[in-house]
Design brief:
heterodimer, A: 157 residues, alpha+beta, four-stranded antiparallel beta sheet, 3 helices, globular, B: 164 residues, mainly alpha, two-stranded antiparallel ribbon, 10% strand
Chain lengths: 157, 164
């Protein structure tokens, strides 16, 4: 009986293991995708960098004038393939992410960014990218108030 | 020879009168040897009803009905206690795996339902290999794609407005 209990616990452990979940994700092409959308404010007014953004900041500081990078919003959700996940960002921007396809550990994702101008929503960016599942893809979207700039980072798995 | 015969008679007398405890091992061996030779005496001795030894002649009091009841009650109580203990052990044997299974299921459910995207199991890593399948920007804006390959940086799409 003890052996049966141990076997059961081991089975549960294996099923609970995140690595197994990722393996299942790779196999289950139609499985809903987990999506994250980060809203990042890039500024020249300070050099504060959110801990999650240090690597990105190091890369961007070499090429651009911005010195501060603040993670202002992080939205997460799930969406079936070809279904959309939308979230508000900052400064009237809105992002919509639509998982399109899983391909060998990579995921094809359509990303639309819209900005509300007066009463109308203007599509600022509409792109489809294929990247490694779970890794953040940064996109520079447009200006914010006070000379700041909105960068979003999107990932799905 | 006569003395030996008297000794045998004394041994036989002791046997016939139920005084076997009075015979020494030597006397018993001597009597046995004699009876093996003298078959007539041996058969006559076998035909005699053995006299009960005096130590066994005393009457043993029969237990009273109350004593018997007490004994049976004790036996019943012991059997009931043993069965109860066995049942408890059986229940414990059943509950132990059930509790383990229930805990495991609870753990699994907790993991599945409390885990939100973006929690600690999703480490911050930036994509280095990005394929752009489609790209549109608003009219008046310009897309700028930085591959990141020259400075070891992170590939990135920028939307530059009319002012750049």
């Amino acid at each position: 009986m003890r052996c049966a209990c141990l076997a059961w616990l081991m089975l549960v452990g294996v099923l609970s293991c995140p690595a197994t979940g990722q393996a299942q994700d790779r196999k289950g092409e139609g499985k809903p995708a987990e999506i994250e959308v980060w809203a990042i404010r890039a500024t020249t007014k300070n050099s504060d960098v959110s801990p999650e953004l240090r690597e990105l900041a190091d890369a961007l500081k070499k090429q651009f004038k911005y010195t501060g990078f603040k993670l202002e919003r992080k939205a997460a959700g799930r969406a079936e393939m070809d279904k959309s996940f939308s979230t508000g960002l900052v400064g009237g921007y809105k992002a919509t992410a639509t998982p399109r396809q899983r391909i060998d550990g990579r995921i094809k994702l359509q990303i639309q960014v819209q900005n509300r101008v007066s009463q109308d929503e203007q599509t600022v960016l509409n792109t489809t990218v294929t990247a490694e599942a779970g890794k953040l893809v940064p996109l520079g979207c447009g200006p914010l108030e006070g000379g700041d700039y909105l960068i979003i980072a999107v990932r799905a798995r | 020879m006569e003395r030996k015969g008297n000794d045998i008679l004394a041994d036989l007398d002791a046997v016939l009168n139920g005084r076997l405890d009075q015979l020494s091992p030597e006397q018993a061996a001597r009597l046995e040897a004699y009876l093996n030779v003298d078959r007539v005496t041996a058969e006559a001795l076998a035909a005699r009803v053995a006299t009960v030894e005096p130590v066994l002649r005393g009457g043993v009091p029969t237990p009273s009905a109350v004593a018997w009841e007490r004994v049976w009650a004790g036996i019943d109580a012991a059997r009931t206690a043993r069965l109860k203990a066995a049942a408890q052990r059986r229940v414990f044997r059943i509950w132990q795996p059930l509790v383990a299974v229930a805990a495991s299921v609870a753990l699994l459910l907790a993991w599945n339902f409390t885990r939100e995207p973006g929690e600690s199991d999703w480490p911050v890593t930036w994509a280095r290999d990005v394929e752009i399948n489609e790209l549109e920007v608003a009219r008046g804006s310009t897309p700028l794609i930085l591959s990141g390959e020259f400075d070891g940086g992170i590939p990135m799409i920028w939307v530059l407005d009319g002012a750049g």
